[in-house]
Design a protein that fits this description.
The complex is a heterodimer of chains A (about 350) and B (about 190). Chain A is of the alpha/beta class. Helix content of chain A is about 40%, strand content about 20%. In chain A, helix 4 crosses helix 11 and helix 5 packs antiparallel against helix 8. The chains are: A alpha/beta (about 350), B alpha/beta (about 190). At the A-B interface, helix 2 and helix 3 of A face helix 1 and helix 2 of B.
C-alpha cells in the first residue's frame, strides 16, 4: 500500500505545532513552538496573547515543518487539524491555516479532537492493541476509557469535579510555584517525604474520580499552619499531595483492569508525563500482566504529531470535513462515546 | 493579474477578486460572529465562479485591523498562509489608512467603529500618520467630536486598489494584525 503522509496542525493552547506523520505512526517532521515563557510572566495562559502569538508564528512553523521533511506537496495526502477542545481563539488560527493549505493544495481536510490526539500519541510508540484501557489525565480530563477498536470509545469513568491537572495547578499556586504548575509540584515532591496526613478521595468502587476534597484539604492545611505561624514543609506537602492523588488514579485503574480483564493499557494527556504516575502504572501493569504503553515525554505535552496519528484512521475511513468547519472550545471525548449512541 | 482582497475585520466579511485592478466579483456576508465558517468558503466560491484556481492568483491584499481581534486574525492567517504557499506578494492595509487614502484633504480625521468605542487615525495630506492611532471609549469620543470633525468616506475598492499600488509588499511571515486596543492583562 502507498504511504500516507498527513500534515497536522495543533494550536489549541499555548503551543504552535505542526508535523508530518507517515501512516499514522512515523514522525517525518515535527515542530513545536511553545509560548510557555511568555505566559509564565502572567502566571498562566492568557488566551488573547496565545491567539496573537499563534498568528504571528503560524507560517514560520509551517515553513520549518515542510523544510525539515524532504517531501513535496504531492507527497502530502491530507491536512489534519485540532478543532476542539481548547481555547477558541487559538484553535481558530490553526484551523484557518489548515483550511487554507487544504484549499490551495487541493487536499482533504481532517478535523481531530485534541483529547483523542493525546490517546493516539501512543501509536507513535507502538500500535495500540484492542481492547485497551486508556487513562486520560490532563488539565481538562480525568477519564478512563475502553477502546474496542479505532475511534470506539466507551467512557468507564470520569472526574466528578476537578481534573487532576487542574488540582496540580491549584496546589502549585498555593505552594507559590510558577506556571506551569504541575511539573513544578512534581519536581518539588521529589525532595519531600509523605509526612502530611491528607484525606483520601472517596474510597468507593465506582470508576469515577473526585479531587476537589483533596484540593480543599491542601488549601486548608496551608491556611491553618500559616495562622498558627507554623512553617510549611512545602516539599513534604507536595509529596503527600502527589502520592494521594496519583495513588487514587492507580487504584481506580486497578479496579478497572481487575473487573474487565483487559490486557492492554495506555496513558494519555499532559499529566502522563508525571514520573510517579508512570512508575506506579508500570508496577501495577506488571502485577496484572498487562501490556502498558506510555507516550515519550515529547508526545505527552501538546504537539501536532499526535494529531497526525489520530487523523490516520479518519483518513482511511475518508472522514473529511469542509472549509466551513468551525472550532469549538468544548467538545469532550464523551461526545464520541460509542456506547451511548443509537 | 489576479488579486484577492480579504477583509474580515468586522461583522461584514468582504472578499473581492480583482483582475488588473478591476473588480471581477465582490462578495459580502454577515459573519454572525462566525468568520471561520464563512470566510474560506467565500474564497473558494469567488475563485470557482471566475473559473480560476488559487495558483492563478498573483497577489493578496488583506485588511489587518483594527477591529474584531478574532475576525482580523482569521483573515490575516488565511492571507499569510496563502501568500506563503503560493509564493506571491502580499500587502496589508489597516482600516484607518484605507479611509485616509481615499480622502483629499490637508488633514484627515478618520474613525473605525467598535462595539464600545472608536479607533481614531489622524493623517496629513500625504497620508502620514500625524497622531499615533488610538482607541477611544464612546464617552471619550463624545468629548473628542466637540472640537473635531470626522471625515467620512465610502470605500471605492477599485480606487483603493489603485492607491495601494504604491504600498510595499511584505514578507508573509511578517504580516500581522493591528490591534491598537490594549488588553486588560497588559495594562
Amino acid at each position: 500500500m502507498k504511504d500516507v503522509n498527513i500534515l497536522a496542525i495543533e494550536s489549541s493552547c499555548d503551543e504552535t505545532s505542526m508535523a508530518i506523520i507517515k501512516n499514522g505512526c512515523e514522525v517525518v517532521s515535527l515542530t513545536i513552538l511553545t509560548q510557555m515563557d511568555t505566559h509564565a510572566e502572567f502566571g498562566g495562559v492568557v488566551p488573547e496573547i496565545a491567539s496573537r502569538m499563534h498568528t504571528e508564528n503560524i507560517t514560520m512553523v509551517l515553513d520549518e515543518t515542510l523544510k525539515k521533511a524532504s517531501l513535496s506537496k504531492e507527497d502530502i495526502d491530507a491536512i489534519a487539524v485540532t478543532y476542539a477542545p481548547g481555547l477558541l481563539g487559538s484553535l481558530l488560527v490553526g484551523l484557518e491555516c489548515a483550511k487554507t493549505i487544504a484549499f490551495v493544495w487541493n487536499k482533504p481536510l481532517i478535523k481531530v479532537n485534541h483529547t483523542i490526539g493525546h490517546i493516539y500519541a501512543n501509536n507513535l510508540i507502538k500500535k495500540m492493541q484492542f481492547p485497551l484501557l486508556a487513562l486520560i489525565v490532563s488539565g481538562g480530563h480525568t477519564d478512563m476509557v475502553i477502546m474496542k477498536d479505532d475511534y470506539e470509545f466507551e467512557i468507564l469513568g470520569s472526574t466528578l469535579d476537578d481534573s487532576i491537572g487542574e488540582v496540580y495547578d491549584k496546589v502549585a499556586r498555593v505552594l507559590g510555584l510558577k506556571y506551569p504548575g504541575g511539573p513544578n509540584v512534581e519536581k518539588m515532591a521529589l525532595n519531600g517525604a509523605c509526612s502530611y496526613d491528607l484525606p483520601k478521595p472517596v474510597n468507593d468502587n465506582t470508576y469515577n474520580f473526585s479531587f476537589s476534597g483533596l484540593k480543599s484539604a491542601v488549601i486548608n492545611l496551608i491556611h491553618n499552619e500559616e495562622q498558627r505561624n507554623h512553617e510549611i514543609r512545602k516539599e513534604d506537602l507536595a509529596c503527600s499531595f502527589q502520592t494521594i492523588a496519583i495513588d487514587e488514579l492507580v487504584r481506580k485503574v486497578e479496579l478497572a483492569l481487575k473487573n474487565t480483564g483487559i490486557k492492554n493499557m495506555i496513558i494519555a494527556g499532559g499529566v502522563s508525563a508525571n514520573k510517579y504516575l508512570r512508575e506506579q502504572m508500570k508496577i501495577l501493569c506488571e502485577k496484572y500482566n498487562v501490556d502498558l504503553t506510555v507516550p515519550d515525554l515529547i508526545y505527552c505535552t501538546d504537539n501536532a504529531a499526535m494529531i497526525g496519528a489520530a487523523a490516520y484512521p479518519l483518513y482511511l475511513k475518508k472522514e473529511f470535513c469542509g472549509l466551513d468547519t468551525n472550532a469549538s472550545s468544548q467538545i469532550s471525548i464523551k461526545y464520541y462515546d460509542t456506547s451511548k449512541r443509537d | 493579474m489576479y488579486s484577492l482582497f480579504i477583509d474580515t475585520h468586522n461583522e461584514l466579511i468582504k472578499i473581492i477578486l480583482f483582475k488588473d485592478g478591476k473588480i471581477l466579483t465582490d462578495k459580502e456576508k454577515m459573519s454572525n460572529m462566525q468568520h471561520s465558517v464563512y470566510t474560506m468558503p467565500m474564497i473558494e466560491e469567488i475563485l470557482k465562479e471566475n473559473n480560476i484556481e488559487s495558483s492563478n492568483l498573483n497577489e493578496i491584499i488583506v485588511v489587518n485591523g483594527p477591529g474584531s481581534f478574532t475576525g482580523v486574525r482569521i483573515g490575516v492567517t488565511i492571507a499569510k498562509t496563502m501568500a506563503y504557499l503560493l509564493n506571491i506578494p502580499i500587502k496589508s492595509i489597516d482600516t484607518l489608512k484605507m479611509q485616509a487614502l481615499l480622502i483629499n484633504k490637508d488633514k484627515k480625521i478618520v474613525i473605525e467603529n467598535e462595539k464600545n468605542g472608536k479607533y481614531l487615525g489622524i493623517f496629513d495630506k500625504n497620508n502620514n500618520v500625524i497622531q499615533k492611532y488610538k482607541y477611544m471609549k464612546n464617552s471619550e469620543f463624545e468629548e473628542f467630536i466637540k472640537d473635531n470633525v470626522i471625515d467620512e468616506v465610502k470605500i471605492d475598492y477599485e480606487k483603493l486598489y489603485e492607491k495601494l499600488k504604491d504600498e510595499q509588499n511584505i514578507n508573509p511571515h511578517a504580516v500581522n494584525p493591528l490591534y491598537i486596543k490594549v488588553i486588560e492583562v497588559l495594562k
